[in-house]
TrEMBL record:
Any GO molecular function: pseudouridine synthase activity
Organism annotation: Actinomadura darangshiensis
Residue ranges constituting the Pseudouridine synthase RsuA/RluA-like domain according to the UniProt record: 91-245
UniProt name for this protein: Pseudouridine synthase
Enzyme Commission number(s) from the entry: 5.4.99.-
GO BP, sorted A to Z: enzyme-directed rRNA pseudouridine synthesis
Amino acid sequence: MAEVRSLHVPDGLEGERVDSALSRLFGLSRSGAADIIAAGDVSLDGAEVATKSERLHAGAWLEVTLPPPPAPPAPVAEPVPGMGILFEDDDIVVVNKPVGVAAHPTTGWTGQTVLGGLLGAGHTIATSGASERQGIVHRLDANTTGAMAVAKSEIAYSRLKRAFKERRIDKRYQALVQGHPDPFRGTVDAPIDRHPSGDGRFAVVAGGKPSVTHYDTVEAFRAATLLDIDLETGRTHQIRVHMSAIRHPCVGDMAYGADPTLAERLGLKRQWLHAVRLGFEHPTKGEWVEFESPYPDDLARALQIVEAES
């Protein structure tokens, strides 16, 4: 069902193009915002907006009819090559997620998913949660590898979701970042929300969701530094955004400002970021469990090269 949203244009959007403003206000792509404007579904002070390049005035009454969201795709049950199992019992399965695999189906994603891979391999998954992400209690970016837990029983789903929400999970990542962060150990506390460009990226944005990343240097090399990272919150792209914000993007992460020359030299086609360890209280047994994931081949090779060059 279409949704009508009405608000006064905030002072911060004075002089902003309508398509850009809609993107920032409602998380739309610029092309999606342009389509809504072209359909006559945007008005300012009661007058229909004629073009996407029209400029806003602070305090004007903006009314937008947002189209209904597309139906989420169903998971495709098919085995995922290279997706190993780190642990499995009646309640949980912990996978070693390979590169290029999303956690669950989303609109616009046509590749393989962890959920589809588990179903395709015959694993039982909890039915709790939305149909396209049943059993999913946390996510890794498609091009971030490492340890990821999925609930098999309903009680495990409920308890793990609560544990993630209450930050009772030990999520450890390692990232190879450009340059040498100063200080070598620190915390990035900066709010994150969608990038104003509406291109799918995220950014440090005033008024965004609180986001806290702790990092510690494992080893410094000539061109890069290997960091151990502890997430206090779990925002989309959080490590990538925060490392870019302090001007030390993950090596290979061109979307967030990494040097393409360095990435090419190291043979990287994605960000050097890996979920090395995942620890939590077992949802039914009550004991603390931890799982570790070794570096995949592309990250291990890149690390060997920077070590050899130092």
